[in-house]
Design goal:
alpha/beta, 5-stranded parallel sheet, two-stranded antiparallel sheet, about 35% helix, elongated, binds ligand JEB
């Protein structure tokens, strides 16, 4: 998979060289290219923003640099590209979407700042590319960079060969195999720690009883913390 990122803060993406995503790049499973949007400005001050038509607070990202950025990134490699635009006005990003994105050959992240990107860039992108406006959740960030990093990590760990033991993907929270419940609590040695014991059932070695206990804990936790996962479909 090839991942391109366009941002006015390319330094935000230094963590892509670390940890799991970094390993995936070293292994050749992922190729990543981070671009400074200002490369596609042509004025002395490398302007990427302007005042909003209709008035209002804040600034809006100008369409021209974004248009050139998408044109240039598209031409840099063959294959259909999927454009991802993090925005608080997007569809909520979910594990189901992470699996869908993991099947694409090219992802391009368009990271906005200020009050966001001129709507015509989004309309153009929807008309030209497979485009997804996605939100990380119902809270406000200052730009798309942190959301892009989160989405990249969620997607890259699903690619074959990235995670050592693929069984761990099936047991975790939000996996389909887990009926999309939250994950059960985990314990490791020592059996006693600061007066707290590991639940007896886990020390017994009866795998059927352990599986039933874990399912029970997962359900209890989901009901308490995320009742929407049990009530709502999806
Ligand atoms: C993503 C962004 C901004 C109104 C207020 C502030 C570009 N879950 C999320 N919260 N916020 C963002 C997000 C995602 N994904 C997000 C991109 C941009 C916030 N802002 C600031 C925009 N509109 C600018």
């Amino acid at each position: 998979m090839r991942i391109d990122v366009v941002s006015i803060f390319p330094d935000y993406f230094a963590p892509l060289q670390l940890s799991l995503v970094g390993k995936a790049i070293e292994k050749g499973i992922v190729e990543s290219h981070v671009h400074d949007l200002r490369r596609w400005t042509h004025d002395r001050h490398n302007t990427v923003d302007d005042t909003p038509y209709g008035g209002g607070a804040g600034m809006v990202m100008k369409p021209e640099p974004w248009g050139e950025a998408l044109d240039t990134v598209e031409a840099a490699a063959p294959g259909p590209m999927t454009v991802i635009v993090p925005t608080p006005a997007g569809r909520p990003f979910t594990q189901t979407i992470a699996y869908e994105l993991a099947a694409k050959p090219r992802l391009v992240f368009a990271c906005g700042r200020y009050e966001g990107i001129d709507q015509r860039v989004l309309d153009h992108s929807h008309d030209t590319y497979d485009t997804h406006e996605l939100s990380l959740g119902d809270y406000v960030l200052n730009g798309g960079e942190v959301a892009a990093l989160a989405i990249i990590e969620a997607v890259v760990r699903l690619l074959p060969g990235v995670i050592g033991n693929p069984d761990s993907l099936r047991e975790e929270s939000h996996s389909q195999d887990n009926d999309a419940l939250l994950e059960y609590p985990n314990y490791t040695k020592p059996p006693q720690w600061r007066g707290r014991a590991v639940p007896e059932v886990l020390l017994g070695g009866n795998h059927a009883v352990i599986a039933a206990w874990r399912r029970d804990e997962a359900l209890r936790r989901t009901l308490a913390r995320r009742p929407d996962l049990i009530v709502d479909p999806e």
